[in-house]
């Protein structure tokens, strides 16, 4: 195993404060939550957002390290198009848990706007905010064009390193003299006096952001939950590319993991089948609300769809709490991830809340 795998520096909080988590209970790595603010058939966005508050409060109470929300657009089954707004909502209803974006899609926004939004969040919840950034649009091409007011979508991804550098300078308020933006200040921010700022994470599902995060010495988050075949190559690339920085002295990588626990194995299977059917529809251009377990069980999958579902569910850790714990432990060992961020993709909030509770019980997290 690579010498950096398994987080040799996981307990060193002297550098990278606010990035490295601490394993709780009997977990070998910190456990966190990715909430996609899913909207199930027969439910509303209002109910989904209320469930997100319930999940954040449960995660805080049970000892999960952080909770992130992700930017998605034009997808009826999710209500997380505005991460900064949702994070402000969650920050007002929690006290300790770290909150962040997993992520904000940088090419969709002007760097100054993101600096102002997350500077505001940091001022509202000091020391609790993470700024995770991605370079994908978080939607289809037509919607991305509507967001960015251009159909030249490749330019945003290609310009990602430059956009990241600009955003970082706005957050640090340190454009050099003579720069066109030298007199522009992101507020809230350093111009108003000493203050912290949210740590930047780079997110990815391939090698581009892995290498960039390593070169810049930033923490890295990999989307294992929908790109499992690339997980170990991307993490190896991140670690091999890593250069110590003022942010981190050693690599720190978390991976997003799709996992759902239920009281019985069959019930877990019913719940995750809803998410699988939702993905079938998304991948075939028919996005919609998350189907109910009953709808998913009654659906007549074509042979091609069944093949996709079997492959998809092979990457979803599901079953009883002990089965899920075993799967998570094995994944952490195989990848050497420093942190696992669990997302439970199911129709109803009750199933997702129960899953996070059961997983916490399995690891002996605080009650």
Q: Which secondary structure elements does this structure contain, and how are they paired or packed?
A:
Blueprint: E1 31-35, H1 45-62, E2 66-69, H2 83-91, E3 98-105, H3 111-124, E4 129-134, H4 141-148, H5 153-158, H6 160-172, E5 200-204, H7 207-216, E6 220-222, H8 231-241, E7 253-261, H9 265-283, H10 293-298, H11 303-313, E8 317-319, H12 321-335, E9 339-343, H13 349-362
Parallel strand pairs: 1-2, 1-9, 2-3, 3-4, 4-5, 5-6, 6-7, 7-8, 7-9
Helix pairs in contact: 1-13, 2-3, 3-6, 7-8, 9-11, 12-13
Mean pLDDT across the residues is 91
Strand order of the largest sheet: 1-2-3-4-5-6-7-9
Low-confidence stretches: 1-16
Rg (C-alpha, Å): 20 Å
Order of helices and strands: EHEHEHEHHHEHEHEHHHEHEH
How many DSSP E strands?
Answer: 9
The profile of the biggest β sheet is: 8 strands, parallel, barrel
Oligomer: single chain
Distance between the amino and carboxyl termini: 34 Å
Short description:
The chain has helices spanning 45-62, 83-91, 111-124, 141-148, 153-158, 160-172, 207-216, 231-241, 265-283, 293-298, 303-313, 321-335, 349-362, and strands at residues 31-35, 66-69, 98-105, 129-134, 200-204, 220-222, 253-261, 317-319, 339-343. The chain has 367 residues and is α/β, with parallel strands linked by helices. An eight-stranded parallel beta barrel has the order 1-2-3-4-5-6-7-9, surrounded by eight helices.
Notable traits:
single chain, 367 residues, alpha/beta, eight-stranded parallel barrel, 13 helices, 42% helix
